[in-house]
Design goal:
- It is built from 11 helices and 13 strands.
- By secondary structure, it is an alpha/beta fold.
- It folds into 2 domains: about 200 residues, 3-Layer(aba) Sandwich (Rossmann fold); about 90 residues, UDP-galactose 4-epimerase, domain 1.
Amino acid sequence: MSKTAVVTGITGQDGSYLAERLLHDGVTVHGLVLPQELNEMAESTRSIVYHAGDLADPASITRVIEEARPDVIYNLGGLSSVAFSWEHPTLVGQACGLGAVAIMEAALRLQTAIGKSVKVLQASSAEVFGNPEQIPQTELTPIRPVNPYGAAKAYAHLSAAVFRSRGLPVSTVILYNHESPRRPDTFVTRKITSRVAQIARDGGGTLSLGNLDARRDWGWAPDYVEAMLLIAAQPEADDYLIATGEAHSVGEFAALAFAQVGIDNWRDYVIVDPDLVRPAEAALQVGDATKARERLGWRPSAGFAELVGRMVDYDVAQLNERLTP
């Protein structure tokens, strides 16, 4: 029997990769999109059943889950920019925190009504650790976020354990930074690669960045989606941390991106803008994915330099396509 899945955040980086994999595996996919996106998405991808809804609107979430009657719900939606969360903390709290709990509540209600389990995969974030007490972090590292996005994700993450105690098989996947060409350029990684591609094409220009010394554990997004599928397939719900175990700085990312287009003197093109420095920069976030390796058999397939190169190559190719008559 074909399974049915609901995916929130289906138009985002992770959601798009996940939907492709689920469809390939014969799963019926329902996607939650904003009302203004419904017509466009329904016309562009007819293999997915789209529903209008908003994570900030619990009633719409309940309606979609009742209509789709899924076997599993992947909650990847929300507003995932830390910078945006400082400007709109209430909105981020509603979408990333309250919206996630509304999904769990609706899933538990459906599970009770149909008499069979409804799995939920809640996408958590390394931002829940804020200034971690230990490096690297594990699933047992204390949660103490330092920004509104991390606080909203922490509420959802802790709520998952509460709903598990009520019999709902909800797992969390604590995702460290993971990138791909599908990242919007509001994220520093894609901002770097798209701008570097343009500088290489134009033969000049500058790239404005914030703290070049900020370090993150960056992985390849399709690898992290693979982890989500493995977690959802487990017979018992649990928390899993997904990371590469390596930390690299924004400056290293920029240096590799420029090197990919043959520019070695990358600092000559970079401007440090104080306005881009976060008001409270989290301490070193690097994860220990031992549990995922041992229980799921998961390992990252692409290293840091490879993912940077792939992203730059994509942006270079995109620019070349636009120039082709």
